[in-house]
Protein backbone atom coordinates (compact mmCIF):
# COMPACT_ATOMS: atom_id res chain seq x y z
CA UNK A 1 0.00 0.00 0.00
CA UNK A 2 1.33 3.40 -0.98
CA UNK A 3 0.54 6.07 1.58
CA UNK A 4 1.19 9.20 -0.44
CA UNK A 5 1.83 8.86 -4.17
CA UNK A 6 3.38 11.87 -5.88
CA UNK A 7 2.92 12.00 -9.64
CA UNK A 8 4.94 14.64 -11.43
CA UNK A 9 3.33 15.10 -14.82
CA UNK A 10 -0.34 14.09 -14.65
CA UNK A 11 -0.98 13.20 -18.30
CA UNK A 12 -1.96 10.00 -20.09
CA UNK A 13 0.54 7.78 -18.28
CA UNK A 14 0.71 9.50 -14.89
CA UNK A 15 -3.06 9.91 -14.81
CA UNK A 16 -3.72 6.30 -15.81
CA UNK A 17 -1.34 5.04 -13.12
CA UNK A 18 -3.17 7.11 -10.47
CA UNK A 19 -6.56 5.87 -11.71
CA UNK A 20 -5.40 2.23 -11.72
CA UNK A 21 -3.97 2.37 -8.20
CA UNK A 22 -7.01 4.18 -6.81
CA UNK A 23 -9.32 1.65 -8.42
CA UNK A 24 -7.45 -1.09 -6.55
CA UNK A 25 -7.29 0.93 -3.31
CA UNK A 26 -3.53 0.57 -3.58
CA UNK A 27 -2.75 4.11 -2.46
CA UNK A 28 -4.23 6.46 0.11
CA UNK A 29 -3.52 9.90 -1.32
CA UNK A 30 -2.36 11.06 -4.73
CA UNK A 31 -0.70 14.42 -5.11
CA UNK A 32 -0.21 15.73 -8.64
CA UNK A 33 2.43 18.17 -9.76
CA UNK A 34 2.87 19.97 -13.06
CA UNK A 35 3.30 23.36 -14.63
CA UNK A 36 -0.32 24.05 -15.54
CA UNK A 37 -2.80 24.72 -12.74
CA UNK A 38 -5.73 24.28 -15.10
CA UNK A 39 -4.53 20.80 -16.09
CA UNK A 40 -4.03 19.86 -12.45
CA UNK A 41 -7.46 21.20 -11.52
CA UNK A 42 -8.87 19.10 -14.36
CA UNK A 43 -7.16 16.04 -12.82
CA UNK A 44 -8.87 16.86 -9.52
CA UNK A 45 -12.25 17.32 -11.24
CA UNK A 46 -11.82 13.94 -12.94
CA UNK A 47 -11.03 12.31 -9.59
CA UNK A 48 -7.55 11.28 -10.73
CA UNK A 49 -5.66 13.07 -7.95
CA UNK A 50 -6.55 14.39 -4.48
CA UNK A 51 -4.34 17.47 -4.31
CA UNK A 52 -1.95 19.39 -6.46
CA UNK A 53 0.86 21.89 -6.38
CA UNK A 54 3.00 23.39 -9.11
CA UNK A 55 5.98 23.38 -6.72
CA UNK A 56 8.01 20.20 -7.16
CA UNK A 57 9.73 20.44 -3.77
CA UNK A 58 6.36 20.89 -2.10
CA UNK A 59 4.92 17.99 -4.06
CA UNK A 60 7.44 15.37 -2.96
CA UNK A 61 7.20 16.24 0.74
CA UNK A 62 5.82 13.33 2.70
CA UNK A 63 5.44 11.12 -0.38
CA UNK A 64 6.59 7.51 -0.08
CA UNK A 65 6.43 6.89 -3.86
CA UNK A 66 7.34 9.47 -6.50
CA UNK A 67 6.66 8.87 -10.19
CA UNK A 68 8.22 11.13 -12.80
CA UNK A 69 6.01 11.20 -15.87
CA UNK A 70 7.45 14.08 -17.89
CA UNK A 71 9.25 14.38 -21.26
CA UNK A 72 12.78 12.99 -21.13
CA UNK A 73 14.55 16.32 -21.33
CA UNK A 74 12.69 17.60 -18.27
CA UNK A 75 14.05 14.79 -16.07
CA UNK A 76 17.44 16.13 -15.05
CA UNK A 77 16.24 19.44 -13.64
CA UNK A 78 13.53 17.58 -11.70
CA UNK A 79 16.14 15.26 -10.22
CA UNK A 80 18.25 18.26 -9.21
CA UNK A 81 15.29 19.96 -7.54
CA UNK A 82 14.15 16.99 -5.48
CA UNK A 83 17.50 15.36 -4.60
CA UNK A 84 18.12 17.09 -1.30
CA UNK A 85 14.53 16.85 -0.04
CA UNK A 86 14.01 13.09 -0.54
CA UNK A 87 13.75 11.24 2.76
CA UNK A 88 15.18 7.79 3.33
CA UNK A 89 12.60 5.16 2.56
CA UNK A 90 11.10 7.07 -0.35
CA UNK A 91 11.22 5.36 -3.74
CA UNK A 92 11.41 7.30 -7.00
CA UNK A 93 10.63 5.85 -10.40
CA UNK A 94 9.89 7.21 -13.87
CA UNK A 95 8.09 6.22 -17.06
CA UNK A 96 10.55 7.55 -19.65
CA UNK A 97 10.72 5.79 -23.02
CA UNK A 98 14.54 5.82 -23.29
CA UNK A 99 16.43 4.57 -20.28
CA UNK A 100 20.11 5.41 -20.91
CA UNK A 101 19.07 9.04 -21.04
CA UNK A 102 17.15 8.87 -17.77
CA UNK A 103 19.93 6.99 -16.00
CA UNK A 104 22.44 9.62 -17.08
CA UNK A 105 20.12 12.41 -15.92
CA UNK A 106 19.65 10.65 -12.58
CA UNK A 107 23.38 10.19 -12.09
CA UNK A 108 23.86 13.90 -12.75
CA UNK A 109 20.89 15.16 -10.75
CA UNK A 110 20.54 12.75 -7.84
CA UNK A 111 23.56 12.95 -5.58
CA UNK A 112 22.11 11.85 -2.22
CA UNK A 113 19.16 9.76 -3.35
CA UNK A 114 20.44 7.98 -6.47
CA UNK A 115 20.02 4.51 -4.95
CA UNK A 116 16.34 5.26 -4.32
CA UNK A 117 15.63 5.79 -8.04
CA UNK A 118 14.42 2.68 -9.92
CA UNK A 119 14.05 3.50 -13.65
CA UNK A 120 10.97 2.09 -15.38
CA UNK A 121 9.03 2.18 -18.63
CA UNK A 122 5.46 0.99 -19.15
CA UNK A 123 5.06 -0.43 -22.69
CA UNK A 124 1.61 1.08 -23.00
CA UNK A 125 0.07 4.24 -24.29
CA UNK A 126 -2.19 5.65 -26.95
CA UNK A 127 -1.67 8.43 -29.45
CA UNK A 128 -3.63 10.74 -27.15
CA UNK A 129 -2.09 12.84 -24.42
CA UNK A 130 -3.26 14.66 -21.33
CA UNK A 131 -5.19 13.56 -18.25
CA UNK A 132 -8.48 13.48 -20.15
CA UNK A 133 -7.10 10.55 -22.15
CA UNK A 134 -6.09 8.58 -19.04
CA UNK A 135 -7.90 5.41 -18.00
CA UNK A 136 -7.45 2.81 -15.28
CA UNK A 137 -7.00 -0.17 -17.61
CA UNK A 138 -4.17 1.29 -19.69
CA UNK A 139 -1.57 -1.03 -18.16
CA UNK A 140 -3.71 -4.17 -17.84
CA UNK A 141 -1.80 -7.14 -19.36
CA UNK A 142 0.88 -4.77 -20.68
CA UNK A 143 4.57 -5.07 -19.98
CA UNK A 144 6.48 -2.78 -17.64
CA UNK A 145 10.23 -2.83 -18.13
CA UNK A 146 12.42 -1.87 -15.19
CA UNK A 147 16.11 -1.13 -15.78
CA UNK A 148 17.37 -1.09 -12.18
CA UNK A 149 20.60 0.70 -11.24
CA UNK A 150 23.33 -1.34 -9.60
CA UNK A 151 22.82 0.97 -6.61
CA UNK A 152 19.17 -0.07 -6.16
CA UNK A 153 18.14 -2.30 -3.27
CA UNK A 154 16.03 -5.35 -4.01
CA UNK A 155 13.43 -3.95 -1.63
CA UNK A 156 13.05 -0.74 -3.66
CA UNK A 157 12.87 -2.66 -6.94
CA UNK A 158 10.16 -4.80 -5.35
CA UNK A 159 8.15 -1.76 -4.26
CA UNK A 160 8.10 -0.39 -7.83
CA UNK A 161 7.29 -3.88 -9.14
CA UNK A 162 4.40 -4.24 -6.70
CA UNK A 163 3.00 -0.85 -7.64
CA UNK A 164 2.88 -1.78 -11.32
CA UNK A 165 1.51 -5.23 -10.61
CA UNK A 166 -1.47 -3.56 -8.92
CA UNK A 167 -2.33 -2.04 -12.32
CA UNK A 168 -2.56 -5.50 -13.90
CA UNK A 169 0.76 -5.20 -15.71
CA UNK A 170 3.60 -7.73 -16.00
CA UNK A 171 6.90 -6.37 -14.74
CA UNK A 172 10.25 -7.45 -16.18
CA UNK A 173 13.82 -6.29 -15.71
CA UNK A 174 16.19 -5.63 -18.60
CA UNK A 175 19.51 -3.92 -19.23
CA UNK A 176 19.37 -0.26 -20.22
CA UNK A 177 21.11 -0.82 -23.55
CA UNK A 178 18.89 -3.71 -24.51
CA UNK A 179 15.77 -1.74 -23.57
CA UNK A 180 16.82 1.19 -25.71
CA UNK A 181 17.56 -1.01 -28.74
CA UNK A 182 14.32 -2.97 -28.48
CA UNK A 183 12.20 0.16 -28.05
CA UNK A 184 14.00 1.98 -30.86
CA UNK A 185 12.92 -0.84 -33.17
CA UNK A 186 9.35 -1.45 -32.01
CA UNK A 187 8.22 1.98 -30.91
CA UNK A 188 10.56 4.84 -31.73
CA UNK A 189 11.15 3.92 -35.38
CA UNK A 190 7.42 3.42 -36.15
CA UNK A 191 6.65 6.82 -34.63
CA UNK A 192 9.39 8.49 -36.68
CA UNK A 193 8.10 6.76 -39.84
CA UNK A 194 4.50 7.81 -39.18
CA UNK A 195 5.33 11.46 -38.40
CA UNK A 196 7.57 11.41 -41.47
CA UNK A 197 4.93 9.95 -43.78
CA UNK A 198 2.28 12.50 -42.85
CA UNK A 199 4.85 15.26 -43.29
CA UNK A 200 5.97 13.97 -46.69
CA UNK A 201 2.39 13.73 -47.95
CA UNK A 202 1.52 17.17 -46.58
CA UNK A 203 4.20 18.66 -48.79
CA UNK A 204 2.80 17.23 -51.99
CA UNK A 205 1.12 19.75 -54.27
CA UNK A 206 -2.29 18.11 -53.95
CA UNK A 207 -1.98 17.23 -50.28
CA UNK A 208 -5.48 18.35 -49.28
CA UNK A 209 -7.00 16.01 -51.79
CA UNK A 210 -4.58 13.22 -50.96
CA UNK A 211 -5.77 12.93 -47.39
CA UNK A 212 -9.39 12.78 -48.59
CA UNK A 213 -8.67 9.53 -50.37
CA UNK A 214 -6.85 7.90 -47.50
CA UNK A 215 -8.64 4.81 -46.21
CA UNK A 216 -8.58 2.73 -43.06
CA UNK A 217 -5.09 1.34 -43.62
CA UNK A 218 -3.68 4.85 -43.71
CA UNK A 219 -5.65 5.83 -40.62
CA UNK A 220 -4.21 2.94 -38.60
CA UNK A 221 -0.73 3.37 -40.02
CA UNK A 222 -0.53 7.05 -39.13
CA UNK A 223 -2.46 7.00 -35.83
CA UNK A 224 0.78 7.37 -33.85
CA UNK A 225 1.56 10.58 -35.77
CA UNK A 226 -1.05 12.17 -33.49
CA UNK A 227 1.28 11.61 -30.52
CA UNK A 228 2.75 14.42 -28.44
CA UNK A 229 5.47 16.24 -30.44
CA UNK A 230 7.56 17.33 -27.42
CA UNK A 231 7.59 13.87 -25.88
CA UNK A 232 8.66 12.33 -29.19
CA UNK A 233 11.19 15.05 -29.98
CA UNK A 234 12.84 14.24 -26.65
CA UNK A 235 12.78 10.49 -27.30
CA UNK A 236 14.45 10.97 -30.70
CA UNK A 237 17.24 13.09 -29.27
CA UNK A 238 17.67 11.12 -26.05
CA UNK A 239 17.76 7.70 -27.75
CA UNK A 240 19.42 8.94 -30.90
CA UNK A 241 22.16 6.28 -31.10
CA UNK A 242 19.74 3.36 -31.20
CA UNK A 243 17.22 5.23 -33.37
CA UNK A 244 19.81 6.27 -35.96
CA UNK A 245 21.12 2.71 -36.12
CA UNK A 246 17.67 1.24 -36.80
CA UNK A 247 16.79 4.07 -39.22
CA UNK A 248 19.92 3.26 -41.21
CA UNK A 249 18.97 -0.42 -41.33
CA UNK A 250 15.42 0.42 -42.37
CA UNK A 251 16.37 2.93 -45.06
CA UNK A 252 18.83 0.42 -46.50
CA UNK A 253 16.13 -2.28 -46.56
CA UNK A 254 13.66 0.16 -48.12
CA UNK A 255 16.14 1.01 -50.87
CA UNK A 256 16.57 -2.71 -51.53
CA UNK A 257 12.81 -3.20 -51.68
CA UNK A 258 12.57 -0.26 -54.06
CA UNK A 259 15.10 -1.95 -56.33
CA UNK A 260 12.97 -5.11 -56.33
CA UNK A 261 10.06 -2.96 -57.50
CA UNK A 262 12.20 -1.18 -60.11
CA UNK A 263 13.28 -4.52 -61.52
CA UNK A 264 9.75 -5.98 -61.20
CA UNK A 265 11.17 -8.95 -59.28
CA UNK A 266 7.80 -10.57 -58.56
CA UNK A 267 9.15 -13.60 -56.72
CA UNK A 268 11.34 -11.64 -54.31
CA UNK A 269 8.64 -9.06 -53.57
CA UNK A 270 6.07 -11.76 -52.90
CA UNK A 271 8.50 -13.67 -50.67
CA UNK A 272 9.30 -10.55 -48.65
CA UNK A 273 5.60 -9.62 -48.23
CA UNK A 274 4.63 -13.21 -47.37
CA UNK A 275 7.42 -13.41 -44.77
CA UNK A 276 6.31 -10.11 -43.20
CA UNK A 277 2.65 -11.18 -43.22
CA UNK A 278 3.46 -14.50 -41.52
CA UNK A 279 5.37 -12.71 -38.78
CA UNK A 280 2.72 -10.02 -38.35
CA UNK A 281 -0.07 -12.62 -38.21
CA UNK A 282 1.84 -14.64 -35.61
CA UNK A 283 2.43 -11.49 -33.57
CA UNK A 284 -1.29 -10.67 -33.65
CA UNK A 285 -2.26 -14.12 -32.45
CA UNK A 286 0.16 -13.89 -29.54
CA UNK A 287 -1.11 -10.51 -28.27
CA UNK B 1 -31.57 -3.53 -60.38
CA UNK B 2 -28.93 -5.99 -61.54
CA UNK B 3 -30.42 -9.20 -62.88
CA UNK B 4 -27.37 -11.47 -62.84
CA UNK B 5 -24.21 -10.23 -61.15
CA UNK B 6 -21.02 -12.12 -61.99
CA UNK B 7 -18.20 -11.68 -59.50
CA UNK B 8 -14.86 -13.05 -60.59
CA UNK B 9 -12.77 -13.40 -57.45
CA UNK B 10 -15.06 -13.81 -54.42
CA UNK B 11 -12.78 -12.53 -51.67
CA UNK B 12 -12.94 -9.61 -49.23
CA UNK B 13 -13.95 -7.02 -51.85
CA UNK B 14 -15.98 -9.17 -54.25
CA UNK B 15 -17.73 -10.92 -51.36
CA UNK B 16 -18.53 -7.66 -49.58
CA UNK B 17 -19.97 -6.17 -52.77
CA UNK B 18 -22.22 -9.20 -53.20
CA UNK B 19 -23.33 -9.04 -49.56
CA UNK B 20 -24.06 -5.32 -49.78
CA UNK B 21 -26.10 -5.60 -52.97
CA UNK B 22 -28.05 -8.61 -51.69
CA UNK B 23 -28.79 -6.79 -48.43
CA UNK B 24 -30.33 -3.97 -50.47
CA UNK B 25 -32.13 -6.36 -52.83
CA UNK B 26 -30.22 -4.64 -55.60
CA UNK B 27 -29.47 -7.81 -57.55
CA UNK B 28 -31.42 -10.97 -58.30
CA UNK B 29 -28.72 -13.60 -58.71
CA UNK B 30 -25.02 -13.62 -57.91
CA UNK B 31 -22.70 -16.02 -59.65
CA UNK B 32 -19.21 -16.38 -58.28
CA UNK B 33 -16.17 -17.48 -60.22
CA UNK B 34 -12.68 -18.36 -59.03
CA UNK B 35 -10.02 -21.02 -59.13
CA UNK B 36 -10.81 -22.75 -55.86
CA UNK B 37 -14.01 -24.75 -55.60
CA UNK B 38 -13.71 -24.97 -51.82
CA UNK B 39 -13.56 -21.16 -51.54
CA UNK B 40 -16.56 -20.81 -53.84
CA UNK B 41 -18.51 -23.44 -51.89
CA UNK B 42 -17.68 -21.49 -48.75
CA UNK B 43 -19.13 -18.37 -50.38
CA UNK B 44 -22.32 -20.33 -51.08
CA UNK B 45 -22.43 -21.63 -47.50
CA UNK B 46 -22.06 -18.07 -46.21
CA UNK B 47 -24.93 -16.92 -48.44
CA UNK B 48 -22.68 -14.54 -50.35
CA UNK B 49 -23.34 -16.03 -53.82
CA UNK B 50 -26.07 -18.18 -55.34
CA UNK B 51 -24.06 -20.25 -57.80
CA UNK B 52 -20.50 -20.78 -58.86
CA UNK B 53 -18.31 -22.08 -61.61
CA UNK B 54 -14.56 -22.18 -62.06
CA UNK B 55 -15.01 -21.57 -65.78
CA UNK B 56 -14.81 -17.86 -66.54
CA UNK B 57 -16.57 -18.10 -69.91
CA UNK B 58 -19.39 -20.03 -68.26
CA UNK B 59 -19.56 -17.50 -65.42
CA UNK B 60 -20.13 -14.42 -67.56
CA UNK B 61 -22.90 -16.03 -69.66
CA UNK B 62 -26.17 -14.22 -69.11
CA UNK B 63 -24.68 -11.72 -66.64
CA UNK B 64 -25.62 -8.06 -67.03
CA UNK B 65 -22.91 -6.85 -64.63
CA UNK B 66 -19.44 -8.39 -64.35
CA UNK B 67 -17.06 -7.38 -61.57
CA UNK B 68 -13.41 -8.42 -61.75
CA UNK B 69 -12.00 -8.67 -58.25
CA UNK B 70 -8.69 -10.41 -58.79
CA UNK B 71 -5.01 -9.43 -58.36
CA UNK B 72 -3.88 -6.92 -61.00
CA UNK B 73 -1.69 -9.31 -62.92
CA UNK B 74 -4.57 -11.72 -63.41
CA UNK B 75 -6.66 -9.09 -65.23
CA UNK B 76 -5.35 -9.31 -68.78
CA UNK B 77 -5.89 -13.04 -69.25
CA UNK B 78 -9.41 -12.65 -67.86
CA UNK B 79 -10.15 -9.87 -70.35
CA UNK B 80 -8.86 -12.07 -73.18
CA UNK B 81 -11.03 -15.00 -72.09
CA UNK B 82 -14.29 -13.07 -71.79
CA UNK B 83 -13.92 -10.56 -74.65
CA UNK B 84 -15.66 -12.55 -77.36
CA UNK B 85 -18.49 -13.83 -75.18
CA UNK B 86 -19.67 -10.48 -73.76
CA UNK B 87 -23.10 -9.50 -75.08
CA UNK B 88 -24.08 -5.95 -75.90
CA UNK B 89 -25.64 -4.30 -72.89
CA UNK B 90 -23.36 -6.03 -70.40
CA UNK B 91 -21.21 -3.77 -68.24
CA UNK B 92 -17.82 -4.86 -66.89
CA UNK B 93 -16.01 -3.16 -64.04
CA UNK B 94 -13.13 -4.01 -61.73
CA UNK B 95 -11.81 -3.15 -58.27
CA UNK B 96 -8.08 -3.01 -59.01
CA UNK B 97 -5.92 -0.69 -56.88
CA UNK B 98 -3.84 0.68 -59.77
CA UNK B 99 -5.77 1.93 -62.77
CA UNK B 100 -3.16 2.56 -65.51
CA UNK B 101 -2.28 -1.10 -65.31
CA UNK B 102 -5.90 -2.23 -65.61
CA UNK B 103 -6.62 0.14 -68.47
CA UNK B 104 -3.59 -1.17 -70.37
CA UNK B 105 -4.67 -4.78 -69.70
CA UNK B 106 -8.20 -3.96 -70.90
CA UNK B 107 -6.92 -2.31 -74.08
CA UNK B 108 -4.84 -5.41 -74.80
CA UNK B 109 -7.44 -7.98 -73.80
CA UNK B 110 -10.80 -6.46 -74.73
CA UNK B 111 -11.04 -6.02 -78.46
CA UNK B 112 -14.82 -6.16 -79.02
CA UNK B 113 -16.11 -5.06 -75.63
CA UNK B 114 -13.62 -2.40 -74.52
CA UNK B 115 -16.25 0.35 -74.41
CA UNK B 116 -18.29 -1.75 -71.95
CA UNK B 117 -15.48 -1.80 -69.37
CA UNK B 118 -15.67 0.99 -66.74
CA UNK B 119 -12.60 0.81 -64.46
CA UNK B 120 -13.21 1.34 -60.75
CA UNK B 121 -11.54 1.19 -57.36
CA UNK B 122 -13.27 1.12 -53.96
CA UNK B 123 -11.15 2.94 -51.35
CA UNK B 124 -12.04 0.40 -48.72
CA UNK B 125 -10.64 -2.79 -47.36
CA UNK B 126 -9.12 -4.40 -44.32
CA UNK B 127 -5.88 -6.29 -43.83
CA UNK B 128 -7.86 -9.52 -44.01
CA UNK B 129 -8.57 -11.42 -47.20
CA UNK B 130 -10.96 -14.10 -48.38
CA UNK B 131 -14.73 -14.36 -48.40
CA UNK B 132 -14.86 -15.09 -44.66
CA UNK B 133 -13.61 -11.55 -44.05
CA UNK B 134 -16.30 -9.97 -46.26
CA UNK B 135 -19.14 -7.91 -44.80
CA UNK B 136 -22.01 -5.89 -46.22
CA UNK B 137 -20.98 -2.54 -44.69
CA UNK B 138 -17.42 -2.48 -46.03
CA UNK B 139 -18.21 0.27 -48.54
CA UNK B 140 -20.60 2.34 -46.41
CA UNK B 141 -19.52 6.01 -46.50
CA UNK B 142 -16.32 5.05 -48.33
CA UNK B 143 -15.20 6.50 -51.63
CA UNK B 144 -15.31 4.65 -54.92
CA UNK B 145 -13.12 6.11 -57.64
CA UNK B 146 -14.03 5.43 -61.25
CA UNK B 147 -11.51 6.17 -64.00
CA UNK B 148 -13.75 5.90 -67.08
CA UNK B 149 -12.30 5.23 -70.52
CA UNK B 150 -13.00 7.75 -73.25
CA UNK B 151 -14.81 4.91 -75.00
CA UNK B 152 -17.33 4.46 -72.15
CA UNK B 153 -20.92 5.58 -72.56
CA UNK B 154 -22.45 7.77 -69.87
CA UNK B 155 -25.12 5.13 -69.42
CA UNK B 156 -22.55 2.44 -68.56
CA UNK B 157 -20.69 4.75 -66.17
CA UNK B 158 -24.04 5.45 -64.52
CA UNK B 159 -24.81 1.75 -64.10
CA UNK B 160 -21.51 1.16 -62.30
CA UNK B 161 -22.10 4.31 -60.23
CA UNK B 162 -25.59 3.16 -59.24
CA UNK B 163 -24.31 -0.27 -58.23
CA UNK B 164 -21.77 1.22 -55.86
CA UNK B 165 -24.22 3.77 -54.49
CA UNK B 166 -26.43 0.88 -53.40
CA UNK B 167 -23.59 -0.18 -51.07
CA UNK B 168 -23.65 3.20 -49.32
CA UNK B 169 -20.47 4.45 -51.00
CA UNK B 170 -19.77 7.81 -52.63
CA UNK B 171 -18.68 7.52 -56.24
CA UNK B 172 -16.30 9.97 -57.89
CA UNK B 173 -14.52 10.09 -61.22
CA UNK B 174 -10.82 10.85 -61.60
CA UNK B 175 -8.10 10.59 -64.22
CA UNK B 176 -6.08 7.39 -64.23
CA UNK B 177 -2.77 9.15 -63.62
CA UNK B 178 -4.11 11.18 -60.74
CA UNK B 179 -5.69 8.10 -59.16
CA UNK B 180 -2.44 6.18 -59.33
CA UNK B 181 -0.43 9.03 -57.78
CA UNK B 182 -2.90 9.64 -54.95
CA UNK B 183 -3.19 5.96 -54.11
CA UNK B 184 0.58 5.44 -54.29
CA UNK B 185 0.91 8.08 -51.57
CA UNK B 186 -1.96 7.16 -49.26
CA UNK B 187 -2.20 3.42 -49.65
CA UNK B 188 0.61 1.77 -51.60
CA UNK B 189 3.48 3.52 -49.81
CA UNK B 190 2.12 2.80 -46.29
CA UNK B 191 1.72 -0.87 -47.20
CA UNK B 192 5.28 -1.05 -48.54
CA UNK B 193 6.57 0.68 -45.38
CA UNK B 194 4.67 -1.67 -43.08
CA UNK B 195 5.73 -4.86 -44.88
CA UNK B 196 9.27 -3.44 -44.91
CA UNK B 197 9.31 -2.60 -41.20
CA UNK B 198 8.17 -6.05 -40.11
CA UNK B 199 10.75 -7.59 -42.42
CA UNK B 200 13.57 -5.37 -41.13
CA UNK B 201 12.76 -6.16 -37.50
CA UNK B 202 12.43 -9.88 -38.26
CA UNK B 203 16.03 -9.90 -39.43
CA UNK B 204 17.42 -8.47 -36.20
CA UNK B 205 19.30 -10.96 -34.03
CA UNK B 206 16.81 -10.71 -31.17
CA UNK B 207 13.72 -10.49 -33.33
CA UNK B 208 11.61 -12.95 -31.33
CA UNK B 209 12.05 -10.86 -28.25
CA UNK B 210 11.58 -7.60 -30.12
CA UNK B 211 8.04 -8.45 -31.15
CA UNK B 212 7.20 -9.36 -27.55
CA UNK B 213 7.81 -5.78 -26.50
CA UNK B 214 5.82 -4.19 -29.28
CA UNK B 215 2.83 -2.22 -28.00
CA UNK B 216 -0.39 -0.92 -29.46
CA UNK B 217 1.26 1.70 -31.66
CA UNK B 218 3.27 -0.99 -33.40
CA UNK B 219 0.20 -3.17 -33.77
CA UNK B 220 -1.74 -0.40 -35.52
CA UNK B 221 1.23 0.70 -37.59
CA UNK B 222 1.92 -2.78 -38.94
CA UNK B 223 -1.67 -4.04 -39.27
CA UNK B 224 -1.54 -3.61 -43.06
CA UNK B 225 1.50 -5.90 -43.19
CA UNK B 226 -1.03 -8.72 -42.72
CA UNK B 227 -2.48 -7.93 -46.16
CA UNK B 228 -2.42 -10.38 -49.06
CA UNK B 229 1.15 -10.71 -50.45
CA UNK B 230 0.13 -11.54 -54.04
CA UNK B 231 -2.31 -8.64 -54.28
CA UNK B 232 0.32 -6.22 -52.96
CA UNK B 233 3.12 -7.69 -55.05
CA UNK B 234 0.98 -6.99 -58.12
CA UNK B 235 0.15 -3.45 -56.98
CA UNK B 236 3.86 -2.66 -56.46
CA UNK B 237 4.82 -3.88 -59.90
CA UNK B 238 1.74 -2.53 -61.72
CA UNK B 239 1.95 0.95 -60.17
CA UNK B 240 5.71 0.99 -59.94
CA UNK B 241 6.25 4.44 -61.51
CA UNK B 242 4.13 6.28 -58.94
CA UNK B 243 5.31 4.08 -56.06
CA UNK B 244 9.00 4.52 -56.86
CA UNK B 245 8.51 8.29 -57.12
CA UNK B 246 6.85 8.54 -53.69
CA UNK B 247 9.34 6.10 -52.14
CA UNK B 248 12.18 8.33 -53.36
CA UNK B 249 10.51 11.39 -51.81
CA UNK B 250 9.91 9.57 -48.56
CA UNK B 251 13.40 8.10 -48.26
CA UNK B 252 14.88 11.55 -48.93
CA UNK B 253 12.67 13.09 -46.21
CA UNK B 254 13.55 10.27 -43.83
CA UNK B 255 17.27 10.89 -44.41
CA UNK B 256 16.69 14.58 -43.66
CA UNK B 257 14.79 13.73 -40.47
CA UNK B 258 17.61 11.38 -39.48
CA UNK B 259 20.06 14.26 -39.91
CA UNK B 260 17.92 16.41 -37.59
CA UNK B 261 18.19 13.63 -35.01
CA UNK B 262 21.95 13.25 -35.58
CA UNK B 263 22.42 16.97 -35.01
CA UNK B 264 19.93 17.01 -32.08
CA UNK B 265 18.03 19.84 -33.74
CA UNK B 266 15.24 20.00 -31.16
CA UNK B 267 13.35 22.89 -32.72
CA UNK B 268 13.19 21.43 -36.21
CA UNK B 269 12.21 17.98 -34.96
CA UNK B 270 9.44 19.41 -32.78
CA UNK B 271 8.17 21.59 -35.64
CA UNK B 272 8.05 18.63 -38.02
CA UNK B 273 6.25 16.40 -35.47
CA UNK B 274 3.82 19.17 -34.51
CA UNK B 275 3.02 19.86 -38.17
CA UNK B 276 2.41 16.15 -38.81
CA UNK B 277 0.27 15.83 -35.68
CA UNK B 278 -1.88 18.83 -36.67
CA UNK B 279 -2.51 17.35 -40.09
CA UNK B 280 -3.19 13.86 -38.73
CA UNK B 281 -5.57 15.24 -36.08
CA UNK B 282 -7.44 17.28 -38.71
CA UNK B 283 -7.65 14.22 -40.94
CA UNK B 284 -9.10 12.13 -38.10
CA UNK B 285 -11.78 14.70 -37.35
CA UNK B 286 -12.82 14.78 -40.98
CA UNK B 287 -13.24 11.02 -41.30
Report on the structure:
2 copies of one chain form a homodimer. By secondary structure, chain A is an alpha/beta fold. Chain A has 2 domains: 2-174, NAD(P)-binding Rossmann-like Domain (Rossmann fold); 178-286, 6-phosphogluconate dehydrogenase C-terminal like domain (6-phosphogluconate dehydrogenase C-terminal fold), CATH 1.10.3660.10. Helix content of chain A is 53%, strand content 14%. Chain A is built from 12 helices and 9 strands. Chain A has helices at residues 12-23, 37-45, 56-60, 75-82, 99-109, 154-166, 176-202, 207-212, 216-222, 229-238, 240-262, 266-286, and strands at residues 2-8, 27-33, 51-53, 65-68, 91-94, 117-118, 120-123, 143-146, 170-173. In chain A, the strands form 2 sheets. A 6-stranded parallel sheet of chain A has the order 3-2-1-4-5-6. In chain A, helix 4 packs parallel to helix 5 and helix 7 (176-202) packs across helix 11 (240-262). Chain A starts with a strand and ends with a helix. The mean pLDDT of chain A is 95. At the A-B interface, helix 7, helix 8, helix 9, helix 10 and helix 11 of A face helix 7, helix 8, helix 9, helix 10 and helix 11 of B.
Amino acid sequence: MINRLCIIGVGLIGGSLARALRAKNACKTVIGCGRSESHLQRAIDLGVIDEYTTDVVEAVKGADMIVLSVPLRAMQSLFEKIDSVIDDGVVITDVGSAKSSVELAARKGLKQSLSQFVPGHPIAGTEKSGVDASFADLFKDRKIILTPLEENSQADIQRVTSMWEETGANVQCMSVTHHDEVLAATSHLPHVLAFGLVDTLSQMSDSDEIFQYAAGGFRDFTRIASSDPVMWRDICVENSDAIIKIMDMYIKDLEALKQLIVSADLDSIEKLFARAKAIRDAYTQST
